[in-house]
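Record passed on here:
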Amino acid sequence: MKPDSDRRRSRSGPRRSHPDHDDDGGTPQGSGRHRHPPRSPGLSYAALIALVVVAVGVAALVCLFVKPVGSLAPIAAAGDESELGRVKRSSRDAHIILGGVAANPRPGEAVASGASLQTTADGLLSVTLGNQTQLDLSGETMLEALTASPGRAPTARLTRGTVAIDATHATGGRSLVVTTAFARIDAASGTCQVVAAADRTRVAVTHGSITLAKANGQQAMPLVAGQHGSVGDSGDPVIEVASRFVRGVNFGGDAVMIAGDHWLSHRQALKAGLELTGGTQVAAPRPIKAPGLDFDMKSLLDAGLTASGPIRIFQQAPNGDYDVILYITDPGGIDPAAVTVNILNRTIPTGDSSAGSDTWKRLGPYRCSVKDHRLDIAVTGARTLELSGMALFSVGALEGGFPAYGTITVPGDHATFVSLDDIPLAVDLGTTGGIAKVAYANGSTVVAEASKPPFSATWTHPPPGAYNLVATVTTTDGATTRTAAVSGMVEDAKKPNTLLYEYWDAMGDGSLAKMRADPRFAQPPSGYRLLKDGFCAPTDFRDHFGARIRGYLIPPADGAYIFCMVSDDAGEFSLGTDDKPASKRLITSVPEYTGYDEWSKYPTQSSAPVTLVKGRRYYIEALYSDGVYGDILKVGWTLPDGTLQRPIPAACLAPFAP
C-alpha cells in the first residue's frame, strides 16, 4: 500500500493531462518527451462525476425533443396533422385516408388527426389512440374524420360497417364519441360494438357502460354490460330485446350444462344442423390447466376442433340476429392479437377477450345477421389452437325455429318384439327446453305423440311385421327436426310352432313361492318373446326375474310319454288334459337348480308315463325364477317308441294367444 504521505501528495498534486499527450496537448507519447505517470484516483472520481452530469443532461434533452419509438403523442388539436394514435394491427384490405390519399398502413405507423379509417372485404384494422382507447374495424367499414380538440374526447363519424370500441383503459377521462346517421355514442369507460346499417344503428355493450343518444345528442340513455340498444331513422333510442340462448355446442365432448343452459355434444350437434368443413376435425383430449373451473366447463375446454388451416364450421340456423360467443384453448398460451374470427365472411379482431386465462379465452359476443339460414364461422390462430365451444343467442325474433337435436333411444335399433307387446318409445333431445312436441311414426303413420318432458310415449298394439320408426321433434318456434330411423321387427304371437315366453323383471329371485305371491305376477309382464327352437328358454337371459312359458303340445303318436326338465333356478312343468289352461296339472319340477344338461339331479325332474292322443292339442305351461348367474329351462320327453328328445321339438308345439 502506498504510504499516507504519498497518498496525500497524489490528492493535492497538479492536474494531470491524458497520458497520450504532453501538457500542452500537442505531442503524443513516444515523441521523446517524458511520459506522465498514471492518473490518480482523485482525478478518476472527478471525471466520473462529470460524465454522469453530462449523461443526465443529454437524457433530459432527448426526453424533451425526441419521442421514443412506439410511444403516443397527446391528442392533437382538431385540424392539424399531429399524431392521434398508432396502428396496432392491419391487413391488406385496410386503409388510412388523409387529404384524399389512401395508404395501406403498417403496425406501428402513426394516425394523424383528421384521418379516416377504412376496411373492405376481409379487411382488419386496429388502432390505439393516445388515450389508450382501442378501435377495431372489420369488413366493409368506414370511420371518417377521426379528430380531437383540446380537453375533449376524440370524435369520429361511422358511415357504414362495424367498429368495436374498448375504452376500459382510457386515460384522462376521455375515450371516444362516435356519430352515425342516426345516433351518437359516447364510449365513456365501456366496451361496445357499433353497427351502422342503412336503416338503424345498433350498439351492444360487453363491459362497463356507454351513452346512446340521437344524432343531435338528445334523448340520451345509458347502456350497461349485456344490454343492446338501437336508434332508427325515426324514433328515440331504445333498448332492444334481451338475447335468448338458442344453441350451445361442446365441440370435443359430451353434452354439458354451462351457465344454466344445456349444450349439445359434438355428436348430437352433427344431427342438428352442424357441419365441419375444410379439414376441421375433433382433436384428441388435452386437459387444460386453469383454476376455478367446474366439471362441465372443464369438460368443454379439455377437447375441441382443430385444423391445419382455419377451423371452419357451418350451423343451420333460422334467419335473424345473433350474438355469437366462442371458446378457444391452447395449453401453450393464447395471444388474442394473433387470433382472427370470421363470421359470415366478415373478419372480426378478437382484441382483449372478455374472460378466460392464458390457456383459454371466451371470445365475443359478436353480433351477426343470418340471412340464408346458414351461419358460417372460421377461427384462425396458432397451429395448436382449438375451438372448444360455441354459444348462440338470438336477438329479437327469428324467422322460424332453431333446429333441434333428437335421436330415438328406445327401442334400440334392430329390436324384436311380439305383437302382444306395448312398445315403449323414448328420445334423447339433448335438452327439453324449447321443445313443444315429439311425434313418433312408423313410416308415414303416427303411432304416438308426447307434449311434455321427457317426451316418452308408448306404441300400443303394434301390428306384426317390420317397422321403421322416426321421431319428429317440433320446437316452440315451430321448427321441426326428424331423427334417424330405428328399425326392428314385431313378431306375430300366433306364429306356428312357437311358444309364448313372458318375463317379469325383479320377481321371484329364484323362488317360485315368492314369484306367485308377487301381485305383479297377475299383471302384464315386462316383456314377451317367442320360443322358436323347441321347448327351450333363452340361456343367460337376465338376472332377478321370473318367467312363464305357455302354448300347446301336439303329440306325434298315440301312447305313453315320459317328460323331464332342467331349470336354473327353481322350475315347474304342467300339462293339461285338454287345451284348457284350467286342466293343467304339475308333471315335473326342480326345487332349486340344475346344470344345463343335468337331467337326473332330482327325482321330481322326470314324470311318470302319461298317455296322449296323436294330433290332440294339450295345454302346457312352465314356470321358473332366477336369482343370479346362469338361467335355463328346457323340457324334453321320451316318445312311446323310446326315442329321447331334449328339448321337445318345435314341430310338436303350437302358439298360445291370451
Observations:
- Confidence is low (pLDDT under 50) at residues 1-43, 58-81.
